[in-house]
Amino acid sequence: MKYLVLIVFGFMTLGLHGQSDADYLKTIYKNSLINGQSYQWLDYLSNQIGGRLSGSLNAELAVEYTKSELENLGLDRVWLQPVMVPKWVRGNPEFAYIETAPGKTIAVNICALGGSVATSVQGLKAEVIEVQGIDELKLLDRSQVEGKIVFFNRPMQADLILTFEAYGGCVDQRYSGAGAGKLGAVAMIVRSMNLRLDDLPHTGSMSYGDTPVSERIPSSAISTNDAEMLSGMLKIDSSLKLYLKQNCRQLEDVLSYNVIGEITGSQFPNEIITVGGHLDSWDLGDGSHDDGAGCVQSMDVLRLLKISGIQPKRTIRVVLFMNEENGLRGGNAYAKEATQKGENHIFALESDSGGFTPRGFTFDGPDYKVDQILRWKPLFEPYLIHYFKKGGSGADIGPLKNSTNVLAGLRPDSQRYFDHHHAANDTFDAVNKRELELGAATMTSLIYLVDKYGLNANQSKLKD
Amino acid sequence: MKYLVLIVFGFMTLGLHGQSDADYLKTIYKNSLINGQSYQWLDYLSNQIGGRLSGSLNAELAVEYTKSELENLGLDRVWLQPVMVPKWVRGNPEFAYIETAPGKTIAVNICALGGSVATSVQGLKAEVIEVQGIDELKLLDRSQVEGKIVFFNRPMQADLILTFEAYGGCVDQRYSGAGAGKLGAVAMIVRSMNLRLDDLPHTGSMSYGDTPVSERIPSSAISTNDAEMLSGMLKIDSSLKLYLKQNCRQLEDVLSYNVIGEITGSQFPNEIITVGGHLDSWDLGDGSHDDGAGCVQSMDVLRLLKISGIQPKRTIRVVLFMNEENGLRGGNAYAKEATQKGENHIFALESDSGGFTPRGFTFDGPDYKVDQILRWKPLFEPYLIHYFKKGGSGADIGPLKNSTNVLAGLRPDSQRYFDHHHAANDTFDAVNKRELELGAATMTSLIYLVDKYGLNANQSKLKD
To answer: Would you call B43 an interface residue with chain A, using a CB distance cutoff of 8 Å?
Structure first.
């Protein structure tokens, strides 16, 4: 009922005909900042449900909640797409300490990496060998590694302006570091992917590659403060020991869902424009930035189009992908079914870089189509959206890529993202309402333009 | 000693000759993000000293600390400029409640506005009349206002992208609302200048204009949540009463100081480039964003020039102004002495909009000089600095304006600024290290270019 009132209000006061594109963008931004729904949705997702690890009860509650909310919007279709997902569980809180002599210990903050095996119930204690990355590990002999815990301690590069580049320069340690088991390591720990010094360990996905189950070693992240301390202590006493205990487990795959809703296009219903984020999150925080923000923004794209009086020509589809964090099963399943059905996905936009002030987009597609989009940039200038570049899009929509479509990623300000990423402080209070709403409006504006003009160099004239 | 090492390191590794402007900017940003000092200075200013209201002990401690730190940088001159400042004290915490019937009360969060008189020691209790601004008050008869508390409740306009514009559209209620005393009001309260709903009252300066002392009324701010509640309750019961108690006082002016340091220009020492922020703050928080951030960034401009191997041609002067918040005495005194001495201030830059991710600058000066600066914009693109506009500069440097110089203001992202402005949550934890350091680097880069080329249309060729 609440939505009905909003929709009528929107059509009556702000969605009048005869408006220029600039007028429509103004209406969209105004509606998001004054009548946005994204923040209230995120409040529920974060504070009433919480962290939504694939296969967890919370993930299923989030599926039910967002499906119900999409149904309340009066879309043309809302449905669930089944997908089998991995179910990894953390178990009891992890425990670790540095031991410099029998009985002389200092507790450190660690967390198991997603997908890691447990230690034995007694935990394990071993000497530590510090390396600055995978390449440095490769230079070591088995004799230097065997029986030890390998400690990957290359920090994120602070002088890179785009923090995702700094992440990209380090995350191989986390993802592939367990390969140290092949050299006889008994465990691996990795410095948290965090640009600041604090006490929070940051989890994230890891892989054992082709390592046989029997040779897989426990893998965890250590907070940046404790990584610094451990590194400093190792310089003084290379024979100190680290004790680790974790009892995480990989269970059988379970059934879960992508949550999908659409407004069917009035003129070109077979041309599909997808917008989405991922509904699953890690379990330490409540997944507000990663990626509750992207989900609620994507949901609000369809609602903002409606209350701004925009009737899409093409089909606009919101997809809340399941299992981006540790499997990408939702993204793969969505693209597979789209291919099987011969669906024509002309454009897809993902928001999975946090709910911070939007700065622009990156685009992946044929040059002439990206060039068409770049010509819309001046329309965004009043909203301080200036970053339109060729580049990556998003993990979930990646499988949709073909030779003709355009994939895009929302690019918010990235400075604070890795303060929260995959850690216990990725929580609702770290999201600013206006920043979230500006992101939703920016996404809606781009979707509006792609829908109106299509992606074809010959149709790219702006009317104002 | 620490600085000496850094300086030598800077000259040796990053300040080599033969670099392009792009190279110098890269060095400056790298030094700020890797070897910046601004965050550590702010930590001390915020956590070891705290809120620095003009005339307070903390303000004097801040003068001593920053002078000492500037001296440690090995500048050519460091000095204090005496200035008499107002001394207003808050006294005991304020107390207020809504009374709907005898004994039925609900506490609300208020704080006295800076410069307000106290209530009597018993406090005051009166009916409330709500208005949406000064203009609406002017439409009322004395009979509607007399004996009542005037409640100014116009919210900041949420759909403006630049939040300072929304502030500008409301702050007259806070600054001039006490004029309601002339219509017989017994007190005024104003909705806090805050774009979000929370429980924190936001203080700020107010003026009684030409109102005689005997007719001045107590003036305070109420939190946005409580403003909403009070407004809602008034719609149900217009005869409810509000109780207020505050015992703030205006004391005699006291002696304080602007803190100034400079690197004397090697070629044009009489051409002065000033960079600054204001050292005083309000008393509720610790003044980290307003304007501890601007002070430490300005201090780091001179340090970053040094460690980046840049020997300025012109005189670069950092000024930490005293008393921006409730008097502007420091800014006025600085400009007055500059005029008396016949100093040639060719350019001044102020950072007083928070320590958030920098987006660019606004410039106030002759078109041909501003046009010269705008041509440097591409150099800033790698750092996502895109906002170069004509506009205001800063309150403290405003008095330096003449027909030939250029004044500039750093423009950080403004979305979160008014969540903290003048409230108890303007604290160190709300400042992100990288965002602060990016601001310092952006300021340093602009100062570097102004120093290198001067501000003259004929000297504006870029060498790279």
So the answer is: no
